[in-house]
Amino acid sequence: MIEDPAAAEVSLAPIRARLLAELSEPGSATMLAAKVGLPRQKVNYHLKTLEAHGLVEMIEERRKGNVHERIMRATAASYVISPAALGSLEPDPARSPDQLSASWLLAVAARLVRDVGALITGAARARKRVATFAIDGEVRFASAADRAAFAEELAGAVAALVSRYHDEAAEHGRDHRIVVAVHPSVKDAR
């Protein structure tokens, strides 16, 4: 999870993003230069920038004649930029209180990314797992009226489950956030 705005900016530069992708497998500046078609010195410059922001790390140093070859790897298998990196521009559900608007849904999703990212980071430090649950699926509605009826029925079912299991007095209980969203599907462009 990238929360620092400067690290986010560094990771989004096209050549640095390519180097991060290449470093899912360890490599040196020389090896990467051959793959991306840039001079070794330029690749090394970008690697040092990525390293300064904690996105890559040196895992080994080899001596080849008079040269020290640094073997680097990405610090994660994948990265997500937290909405927190936007500072005061981070989407906030409180600023878009219309629960039927796409802006509100986006703000809730941004909060979900930020919160789960923080949980993953904390759990990794503590060498623990995060207990989560998600459902992902698609439904095709015949009409807008069917979609509205579905949303109303879904809201009622979720409210009934919450009232059955929510225990405000549970001494060792832990609060959990529930996010249920329905939006038009977007076809994957990949």
Mean pLDDT comes to 91
Please write the string of helix (H) and strand (E) elements: HHHHEEHH
Rg result: 22 Å
Topology, number of strands: 2
Low-confidence stretches: none
Strand arrangement, major sheet: 1-2
- State the domain count: 2
Helix content: 40-55%
The fraction of residues assigned to DSSP E strands is: 5-15%
Would you summarize the structure shown here?
This protein is mainly alpha-helical and 190 residues long. It has helices spanning 5-12, 14-22, 29-36, 40-52, 102-126, 144-165, and strands at residues 56-64, 67-74.
Can you walk me through this structure?
This protein has 190 residues and is mainly alpha-helical. The chain folds into 2 domains: 5-74, Winged helix-like DNA-binding domain superfamily/Winged helix DNA-binding domain (Arc Repressor Mutant, subunit A, Orthogonal Bundle); 91-165, no CATH class. Helices cover 45% and strands 9% of the residues. The protein contains 6 helices and 2 strands. It has helices spanning 5-12, 14-22, 29-36, 40-52, 102-126, 144-165; strands at residues 56-64, 67-74. Strands 1-2 form a two-stranded antiparallel sheet. A hairpin with a 2-residue loop joins strand 1 and strand 2 (67-74). The longest helix is centred in the middle third of the chain and has 25 residues, at 102-126. The chain is elongated and about 70 Å long. The two termini are 23 Å apart. The mean pLDDT is 91.
Descriptive tags:
single chain; 190 residues; mainly alpha; Arc Repressor Mutant, subunit A; two-stranded antiparallel ribbon; 2 strands
